[in-house]
Amino acid sequence: MQQELTTLIEETDIRNGNLVAYYDRNMQETIFAVEGVWQGFIYNSGLPLSKIPCQKANPIPLEISWLENFGFLPGDAEHGEDPNVYSLKYNRLHSIHIRVQQGIFQPVADSPSGQVPYGRPLAHVHQLQNLFHALTMEDL
């Protein structure tokens, strides 16, 4: 289920490395990585004038294809894993898990009673990138 690009991105919600989109003069959507954010502008050397106002940037809807592009793998039902839970191993012992059901991307954590949800569901790629960075101090 694809979500609409109706949400504006707040300057405080993005950081260097986040992926966002904008529509050029021909109304072609272009995805780019944020190289800087300052005083209401998002900077990227490939943009016209190397910057756009924050209100012109659009969040990218989170879809399963983005999880897969970042290296998340679905659970393997043959090994007792939930195929709706996508996981990314970020070190030898720990993984980040996202349960995908009916277009909702909910972070889940391992617990003695199974995987339990935490935080709010994610709707946009930059939210997943920020969660990953907050948990690992690394970039997706």
Overall description:
- The chain is mainly beta.
- It contains two helices and ten strands, in the order E-E-E-E-E-H-E-E-E-E-E-H.
- The strands form three sheets. The chain has a five-stranded antiparallel beta sheet.
- Strand 9 (104-111) and strand 10 (114-117) form a beta hairpin.
- The model is unreliable at 1-6 (pLDDT under 50).
Write the layout of secondary structure elements.
Elements: E1 19-23, E2 29-33, E3 36-38, E4 41-43, E5 51-53, H1 64-69, E6 73-74, E7 85-89, E8 95-101, E9 104-111, E10 114-117, H2 125-136
Antiparallel strand pairs: 1-2, 3-4, 4-5, 6-7, 7-8, 8-9, 9-10
Looking at this protein, list some descriptive labels:
mainly beta, 140 residues
Low-confidence regions = 1-6
**Apparent shape:** elongated
In order across it, which strands form the biggest sheet? 6-7-8-9-10
Q: How many E strands? A: 10
| Major sheet attributes | 5 strands, antiparallel
Could you spell the SSE succession in H and E letters?
A: EEEEEHEEEEEH
Percent in strands: 25-35%
Amino- and carboxy-terminal Cα gap:
23 Å
Instruction: Tell me roughly what share of residues is in helical segments.
Output: 10-25%
Structural class: mainly beta
- Mean pLDDT reading: 91
Radius of gyration: 16 Å
What is the overall number of helices?
2
Please summarize what this structure is.
The chain has 140 residues and is mainly beta.
